């Protein structure tokens, strides 16, 4: 076939493709990854902190030590060995047998991202409403958008989602005749805002959702990356009915493994497995064996400590840099874990419009607009502190502050 243009395809796309636009973040990555740019834009874990030689040796021996199953198809739900290990990992944050967590109800996924997609697949019809924090995880917005659902944002403050605003949003959606299916929430070390829902609010949020008949999808990739004492226990440890718990080894081990999971209410688990089989047949046997062996034979709790220490130092560098260098009127969150700080710019500054000038000044961030379904949020930016070393972070903030001062003077 010759002479095919994009136009030849546009009227053939499925309806759900129409709203699919390239993520702002993806577009930024190409520029931000140039070595001269200090990138506070990414969200990459610092995997160089892993004992790479030991991990390499473990990976090299997987097939020989664990037999051909590591190279074979497996079952859609994921291996029992890994699901058992996942239960051990969840028990660390209080999700244990006492609250009904069992390998039976765990579904292994290709990262937390597939976990989100599966939940969307089994629950969302076009036009359904998902309630989510404003701002929220950009990858979740992509999933909900592909499901043709509508995201209604619920505002947060430094203590996480505002329970009153959640109640209001539920009432408004009901008044408009639409159906809200679930609350999507990242209660601990939120991406992008860096804030954590307090103990007291956790109970209130769960009560509100229960009363409204709203499912809760708890996305928790960061809960184990706490810097200043333990994070509040996950929502799922407090309530088993109606709460889906999603997590991943991307931040506690390595995103390259692409291994995550869902702990689902028992009745729903089978639907998730069927949906996953339709999508991917089964998660990678090799990646599952790698994660299982990593958890069984390597000091993964020590590694978690290492990640925490490195990120704590980097968070401190970012917060100190912001305090010393940001123009008056700038505010930011002070995360107690995770990978991100959310900054609010002085009145009149637009993080999206400023981006080309920031890149020219060799610093990158993600404008707040990427984290809202309706494109608002231009007065904010997300700053990542997990990847660049402390001195680069400081230099990045210095460059950023310079750009902001210039904008303010314009
Ligand atoms: N949820 C949240 C809140 C995230 O920040 C991420 C990764 N940035 C994911 C899910 C997906 O993680 P992965 O697919 O790498 O496990």
Automatic annotation (TrEMBL):
This protein's name: GntR family transcriptional regulator
Cofactors (names): pyridoxal 5'-phosphate
One of the protein's GO biological processes: alpha-amino acid metabolic process
Q: Which CDD domains match?
A: AAT_like
Subunit info here reads: Homodimer.
Family as reported in the entry's similarity comment: Belongs to the class-I pyridoxal-phosphate-dependent aminotransferase family.
Q: Could you tell me the keywords of this UniProt record? A: Aminotransferase, Pyridoxal phosphate, Transferase
**Molecular function terms in GO for this entry?**
pyridoxal phosphate binding; transaminase activity
Q: Which SUPFAM superfamilies match?
A: PLP-dependent transferases
Task: Provide the Aminotransferase class I/classII large domain boundaries.
Answer: 38-400
What Pfam families does the entry give?
Aminotran_1_2
